[in-house]
Amino acid sequence: MTLTTEPRTPERAPSRRSTRADAVPTTTGTRVAWMIKLVLIALLDAVGGFAVFTLFTLDQVIPAAAVLVVVVALNVVYLKKGLLPAKYLAPGLIFLVVFQIFVVFYTGYIAFTNYGDQHNGSKQDAIEQIIRTAQTRVEDSAQYRVEIYTQGDQLGMLVADPDGTTEFGTADTPLAPAGAAPAGWTKLTLQQILAQQDEVLALTVPFDDDPNSGTLRTADGSTAFVYTSALQYDETADTFTRTDTGTVYTDDGEGTFRNADGQQLAPGWQVPVGFDNFAQAFTNDQLRDPLLRVIVWTFAFAFLSVATTFALGLFLAIVFNHPRVRGKKIYRAVLILPYAFPAFLSGLVWAGMLNPEFGFFNQVLFGGAQIPWLSDPWLARFSVLLVNLWLGFPYMFLVCTGALQSLPDDVLEAATMDGAGAWRIFRAIKLPLLLVSVAPLLIASFAFNFNNFNVVYMLTRGWPRFTDTTLDIGATDLLITLVYKVAFGGGGGRDYGLASAFAILIFLIVTVVTIISFRRTRALEDINS
Questions:
Q1: From residue 293, how far is each of 47, 474, 511 by CA, in Å?
Q2: Using an 8 Å Cβ cutoff, are 308 and 389 in contact?
Q3: Which of 6-15, 60-69, 134-143, 202-211 has the lowest mean pLDDT?
Q4: Reduced to 3 DSSP states, what percent helix, strand and coil does the chain have, rounded to the nearest 5?
Q5: pTM tops 0.85, yes or no
Q6: What is the C-alpha separation between 440 and 297, in angstroms, rounded?
Q7: Are 459 and 390 spatial neighbours (Cβ–Cβ below 8 Å)?
Q8: pLDDT value of position 240
Q9: Alpha helices in 259-287 (DSSP H)
Q10: What SS3 state is found at 390?
Q11: Exposed, middle or buried, 50 (CB in 10 Å: 0-12/13-18/19+)?
C-alpha cells in the first residue's frame, strides 16, 4: 500500500503590517505621552525663561545663571533618548539641592556676615536710605504745583516748575522733562488722594541721580516743597557730614558709618565679619551665661525626653504584649491617639490646662491651688517634659511593640525553663536584643528632641525669662527656640548672622552626638552577635 501525504503548508509568519496594526495602541499611547512631555517641557521653558529674564533685570546674575543651567539640564534629560535613571532622579536631586544643600551653604555664608535688620542691603542702598531719612524742608523753598498720578501700586508726581517747565518723576525715577504724565498713568482725584494720604505723604521724588540734590514732597497733593538731607554724603572721601553741627561719620569697616564718639548712622549694610558672630556668642555678657544655661537645658531636655518616653513606651508595650491581656487592639488604638495630634496644637491646649488661674490642673485636680506651672523656672521645665512625654510615648510604644513581637520565642522559653524570672529575662535577654533594633531610633529621637521647637515655643515660648539679660531668653528655651528669637527679634533686633552661627553650632553638636551614638550602637551589635 502506498502512503501519500499532502505537502505541508508552512505556517505563515505574522506580517509586518499585522505587527504594526497590533502595535497601534502602544504607538498611539507613546505619541500621547510624548506630546504631554513636550507640553510640560514647553511650560517649564516658559516659566524658566521668565524667571531668568526677571532675575537678570534685578541684577541677580548668579541665581539667573543657576536657573538657566537647571532648565537646560532638564531639557537634555527629558528630551534625549535614554538617560532613564536620570529622568527619575532629576526631580529629587533638584529638590535636594534647593532645600538642603543650598540652605546649608547659604546658612554657613550668612553666619560669617553681619546680616540683620540694620544690615540687610548694599552700601549704596544704606547711603540712599540715610539721606532719605534725614531730610528736612528747606526754608523759603520755592513752591511747586504738582499733580499725583498712579499706575498700579506706584505713585508719580507731575511737577510744574516756577520757570514754567513741566517734569514727571517717581520715588525711583528722578524728575525728567515731560509735557504730561506718561501713558498708562491715571491722575488721582481729591477723594483718592485723601484715601491714600499716607502713601502720598511718603512720596519723595528726587531732582536727579545725586541724592544730595534734594527731593520734592507734598502734604496736600497739589503743592510741593524742596527737602534736603541734614546729612551730606561725600563720595570721594566716603563720609557723611551733618550740615548743622559739622560732625563727620566715616566707614568703620563693619558695615556702618560712625563718628568719633561712636555714634552710628542707621541703617548699615551687609559685610563679612569672619568669626565675630561665633565669638560674640561666648564673649557678650548679655548672651554668654544665658547661652551656656540654654545648652545645658537642651541636652537635659533631649536626654530626659528620650529616656522618659522610651521607658513609658516600653512598659506599656510589655504590658499589652502579654498573652493574657484582652482587648489589646482597643488599648493600643487609644494609646497612640496623642501621636495623631499636631504638636503645636497640643502645646496650646496644655498651656491652657496648666494656667495657674483657670487651668484644669489647678482648678480640678488640685482644688483651686495657685501652682505656677509655667512661670516658675523648674516647674516650667517639668511641664515641658510632661507634655513632651504625653506626645512622645505613643511613638516609643509602637516601636517597642514591634520590636518585642520580633524577639525569638525559643530563647525566651529556654530562659523560663532554666528558672529565670521575669526581671532577669527582661534585663538579660529582652532589653539587649531590643536595643539592637531600637538604638538607631533612640538616636534619631534624641536629634529630634534636641530641635523640638513646637512643644517648647507653643507651651512656654521659652519663658520664664532670665533676669540677668535684656534679651528674650528664658529657662525653657532650647537652642532652636533661641535661634528663632535671635533671627526674628528677641530683645536685640533681628540678627540673622548670629542666628546662623547658632544653627551651625546645633548642627555640629547633633553631628558629634550622632556619630558617637552610632559607634556605640555598632559595639552593641557586636556584643550581642
A1: 49, 9, 21
A2: yes
A3: 6-15
A4: 55, 10, 30
A5: no
A6: 23
A7: no
A8: 96
A9: 276-283
A10: helix
A11: exposed
